[in-house]
Amino acid sequence: GNSVTQMEGPVTLSEEAFLTINCTYTATGYPSLFWYVQYPGEGLQLLLKATKADDKGSNKGFEATYRKETTSFHLEKGSVQVSDSAVYFCALSDPSSGSARQLTFGSGTQLTVLP
Amino acid sequence: DAGVIQSPRHEVTEMGQEVTLRCKPISGHDYLFWYRQTMMRGLELLIYFNNNVPIDDSGMPEDRFSAKMPNASFSTLKIQPSEPRDSAVYFCASRLLSGNTIYFGEGSWLTVV
């Protein structure tokens, strides 16, 4: 079956620090990969995505590269801000699971950025 | 365009009461999903619909939970009777058949006391 393993949190960083949140996956087919972000008290927002190997998704200074050889999709940002404090979810959508391509989520990583 | 719209945003109810959560998917989307988020279990898919038809309800925890989609623009998730362990955030989400991105609503935050 499909699964997503995320770096355990919580992660606490100072403003302008470099961020990496690790994500690895197991899938039976060729999945699309996503990072969603959940700000306090809010719903899930798509942060970035990649649909095939070696694709790089990017948004708001965040980046993640689809690495098929290591089955990974690590999230990075060069300089975090206090406003980046949120929970980050890695997810995959496997077309071999059917046309719905529903998402399988990791457990989420809580990020707190201190001023 | 409006996103996925859920109501109520917050609900506090007593054990044994019926709870109905509502969702309006993005117009034109073919798939609708209901997810539940808890601290213990993370994000779990409860059920999804394709063109208003329930396809997979294997994630529905028990018979107290039911979901309907009477038309393309409306779905409900009902819990009857509710129990304290049902306290969670319930997300509705939707997607186009031709797309690969699922869009989420802001969630319904349910507390059963």
Question: How is the topology of this model organized?
Answer:
The complex is a heterodimer of chains A (115) and B (113).
Chain A: E1 3-6, E2 11-14, E3 19-21, E4 23-26, E5 32-38, E6 44-50, E7 56-59, E8 62-65, E9 75-77, E10 86-93, E11 103-105, E12 109-114
Chain B: E1 5-7, E2 10-13, E3 19-24, E4 31-38, E5 42-50, E6 53-56, E7 65-71, E8 74-79, E9 88-95, E10 103-104, E11 108-112
Parallel strand pairs in B: 2-11
Antiparallel strand pairs in B: 1-3, 3-8, 4-5, 4-9, 5-6, 7-8, 9-10, 9-11
Keywords for this entry:
heterodimer; A: mainly beta; 4-stranded antiparallel sheet; 0% helix; B: 113 residues; 7-stranded mixed sheet; globular
Question: Can you put this structure into words, describing what you see?
Answer:
- The complex is a heterodimer of chains A (115) and B (113).
- Chain A has 115 residues and is an all-beta fold.
- Chain A is built from no helices and twelve strands.
- The radius of gyration of chain A is 14 Å and the shape is globular.
- The model of chain A has no long low-confidence stretch (mean pLDDT 92).
- Chain B is mostly beta strands.
- Chain B is built from no helices and eleven strands.
- In chain B, the strands form two sheets. In chain B, strands 2, 4, 5, 6, 9, 10 and 11 form a seven-stranded mixed β-sheet that branches. Chain B has a four-stranded antiparallel β-sheet with strand order 1-3-8-7, with no helix packed on it.
- Chain B starts with a strand and ends with a strand.
- The relative contact order of chain B is 0.34.
- Chain A binds chain B through residues 32, 34, 36, 42-46, 49, 51, 89, 93, 98-103, 105-108, and chain B through 31, 33, 42-43, 45, 48, 50, 55-56, 91, 93, 95, 97, 100-107.
- Overall shape of chain B: it is globular
Q: What is the CA–CA distance across the termini of chain A?
A: 41 Å
* Average pLDDT, all residues of chain A: 92
- Share in β-strands of chain A: over 45%
Radius of gyration of chain B over all CA atoms, rounded = 13 Å
Largest interface: A-B, 22 and 21 residues
Please give the count of helices of chain B: 0
Secondary-structure element pattern of chain B, one letter each: EEEEEEEEEEE
Number of strand segments of chain B: 11
